Amino acid sequence: MMFLFALLGCLVASSVTNISAKRVYSEKDLRRHIFADYDKFVRPAAHPDSTITVSTGITPLSIRELDTKTQVLVMDTYMLMKWNDDFLKWDPSEFNNITELRLPNSLVWKPDLSVYTASRDDALFPTSPTNVIVDHNGSVLWVPYFTIKSRCPLKKQGKNYFECVIKIGSWTYSGKLLNPQLDTSEVDLSNFEDSNPSWKLVTIKSDRQSQFYPCCPGEDYPAIHFNVTLKRRWPSVSMENEV
Fold it and tell me: Domain Neurotransmitter-gated ion-channel ligand-binding spans what residues (predicted)?
């Protein structure tokens, strides 16, 4: 009898161990499966002519600086990007009901959305090492921390109010291949820290605009425009002369 109890205990322990091992192996097996023939340098569309739509937006966190002499705006943000990758799909029932993965963003293709108005080349793209979230239906979400450094030619909009535009779009793709769209019509300011001693962020309005270039007739290059309105906290005579 004691032998039977001991044998039963071993079987239960072995079963639990096997279940745990299977769960760990399932995620590893899933990663091996989806990356077996994956090429992160290839636009992830099943058909060459298909358009990849990228939902995008920014969540402002703080105004670091606005230099009125160089007219450069430095703003901390989260930059949202969401798109569909036709080559990152799987059936959860075949992989222990795993419905999503969190992966280093360096493993997957990412849209080359860039700040067209960047003040320097090291401020063109987000470089944050944050993970992406990949859903089993191919949806990919990336929300990197991004310090925007943008040329900001100030346009006066009344006493002590100034406006400039940040433009974000694909660096190499036309709208036919990569189509940026606003994630939402309203810019989320709920996480904004109003701590800059000189400038107050009044509002950010966004819209989508298309640009056409002489090099590429018939091809539009859409971009998202963020119209930033700022108020000078302490009006200065020197600034009145600068702008």
Answer: 28-233
Ramachandran category for residue 208: left, alpha or beta (phi over 0 → left; psi -120 to 50 → alpha):
beta
Compute the distance between CA of residue 192 and CA of residue 75 in angstroms, rounded to an integer.
Answer: 10
DSSP letter at 109 equals -
Per the CB < 8 A criterion, the answer to whether 115 and 169 are in contact is: no
Provide the whole-model pTM. 0.82
Q: Are 203 and 229 in contact (CB under 8 A)?
A: yes
Q: Is residue 9 classed as helix, strand or coil in its secondary structure?
A: helix
d(CA 149, CA 166): 9
Answer yes or no: is pLDDT of 2 > 50.
no
Percent of the chain with pLDDT over 70: 85
Q: What are 7-35's pLDDT values in tens digits?
A: 444 444 554 444 444 444 589 999 999 99
Alpha-carbon gap, residue 177 to 221, rounded angstroms? 10
- If DSSP codes are grouped into helix, strand and coil, which group holds residue 12? helix
Percent of the chain exceeding pLDDT 90 equals 67
Q: What is the pLDDT of residue 34?
A: 95
| Contact yes or no for 90/30 (Cβ under 8 A) | yes
Max intra-chain CA distance, the chain: 97
Tell me the two tokens of residue 69.
């002499």
